Amino acid sequence: MKVTMSLEGTKELQLEIKKMCKEKVDKVRKETYASGLEVQKKAKENLKSAGSWDVGNLANTILVDRIAGGDAVEVGPTAPYGLYVEYGTKPHFPPPDALEGWAKRHGFDSAWPICMVIAERGLPAKPYLLPAYLAVVDRYFGRLKRIAAQ
User: Fold this and answer.
1) Is residue 13 scored above 90 in pLDDT?
2) Residue 58 CB coordination number (10 Å)
């Protein structure tokens, strides 16, 4: 046995209900994007407070992109080393050229000593993106609940 439910009525009623749904969808999309911007801002703050801010390159690559027709957002860095800052690394020998500028800005004559330390110890994790998401997600869902209840 099946039960079928459908909305029937005048065309005006159907259009009004579709309009109400579209307004809520638009509000949810705006809220989703706004929350993505909150995550972005918090991630940048986390980089600064963790001491992971040198010239701001990583922070400047943290983007908020609308996906799925605006129903979702992706927040994250385009800098290839963003993952290494978030999760750290095992001991490995990094390419000295990649660290040369950082070494000079921090008083080293070359990147070689830094490379040796990373080869021995790796890099510690300095999470910035996941904590930013966790700081925003509950408020985001609360706002979505309010929109749904309207």
Assistant:
1) no
2) 22
CA distance 20 to 138: 25
Cβ-contact 123, 88 below 8 angstroms: yes
Task: List alpha helices for the chain, DSSP H.
Answer: 11-49, 57-60, 82-87, 96-105, 112-121, 129-149
pLDDT at 34: 95
φ and ψ of 96, to 5 deg: -55, -35
User: In this predicted structure, what is the pLDDT of residue 4?
Assistant: 47
What is the C-alpha separation between 88 and 124, in angstroms, rounded? 5
What residue type is 86 in one-letter code? Answer: E
- Provide the whole-model pTM: 0.83
Q: CA-CA distance, 101 to 141, in Å (whole number)? A: 42
